[in-house]
UniProtKB/TrEMBL annotation:
Domain of life assignment: Bacteria
EC main group: isomerase
Assigned keywords, A-Z: Isomerase, Metal-binding, Zinc
Entry EC number(s): 5.1.3.4
Record protein name field: L-ribulose-5-phosphate 4-epimerase
InterPro entries xref list: Aldolase_class_II_sugar_metab (IPR050197), Aldolase_II/adducin_N (IPR001303), Aldolase_II/adducin_N_sf (IPR036409)
Entry keyword Phosphoprotein: no
Cofactor(s) for this UniProt protein: Zn(2+)
């Protein structure tokens, strides 16, 4: 744990961290609710950036503690880490370790500045594609909309250091996809914030399941590239509500 304490941040930064802890705790409930995880095997994080120079670090991220039941997750036991993955003194117990995927989340935040949220699950259909080391081909309009093409496979990597994070960044940095299936491991998704990354995790599992079911009756055909491009452009720019605030 670093010697940095929550008290070292300004009131506005502390409030932003507190709001993120609340958000991230609540979003973890979406993982079991959408059948994306077994037991405690999945995690959500969100980055909090401090644009001014007055804070002790440029940013932190909030992530769940490792191996704690989703029912027991609250804002108060969300762990706060600096962007190198070190837990700060966040008023949680000194023995409460962050998720075992913390180094992977930290690497993504350090190397993909536009990413504000990261999610990892072992959702069963997406993980079955990962187990085969097979990308999910873009055979559904929802895939073109949300992922802009195939959902790629990332390299095989061991948990515990930067390896998984490096694999995620290498695979997604030049891709439109917000999901990567780490080889023989499972999906990691990214978003502008934690909610956006959770949405990508839910939709990744949905398309993994649907394409799997379709393949029981034959090989579905990939959508033509120009149609994928048109679908992606429309969905990214027109779909949903405009934020007028
Ligand atoms: O891949 C694995 C375990 O097989 C990890 O992703 C863990 O399942 C994450 O659990 P937490 O440490 O986040 O509770």
């Amino acid at each position: 744990m670093s010697t940095l304490h929550l008290n070292n941040f300004s009131d506005s930064a502390s409030q932003a961290i507190a709001a993120s802890r609340k958000t991230v705790a609540a979003l973890h409930a979406e993982l079991p609710r959408n059948d994306l995880v077994a037991w405690t095997a999945g995690n959500v994080s969100q980055k909090v950036e401090f644009p001014g120079a007055e804070e002790p670090v440029a940013g932190v991220f909030v992530i769940k503690p490792s191996g704690v039941s989703y029912d027991e997750l609250t804002a108060a036991n969300m762990v706060v880490c600096t962007l190198d993955g070190t837990k700060i003194d966040d008023d949680t117990s000194i023995g409460l370790s962050p998720s075992s995927d913390t180094a992977a989340h930290a690497y993504v935040y350090r190397n993909m500045p536009a990413v504000g949220g990261v999610v990892h699950t072992h959702s069963p259909y997406a993980t079955s594609w990962a187990a085969r080391g097979e990308p999910i081909p873009c055979v559904l309009t929802m895939m073109a909309d949300e992922f802009g093409g195939d959902i790629p496979i990332g390299p095989f990597a061991l948990i515990g250091d930067d390896s998984i994070g490096r694999g995620i960044v290498e695979t997604l940095q030049d891709s439109r996809s917000r999901a990567v299936l780490m080889d023989r491991h499972g999906p990691f998704t990214i978003g502008t914030d934690a909610k956006d990354a959770v949405k990508a995790a839910v939709l990744c599992e949905e398309v993994a399941r649907t394409v799997h079911l379709a393949r029981a009756y034959g090989e579905p055909e990939r959508i033509a590239q120009h149609q994928i491009d048109a679908l992606y452009a429309r969905y990214q720019n027109v779909y949903g509500q405009k934020d007028n605030t």
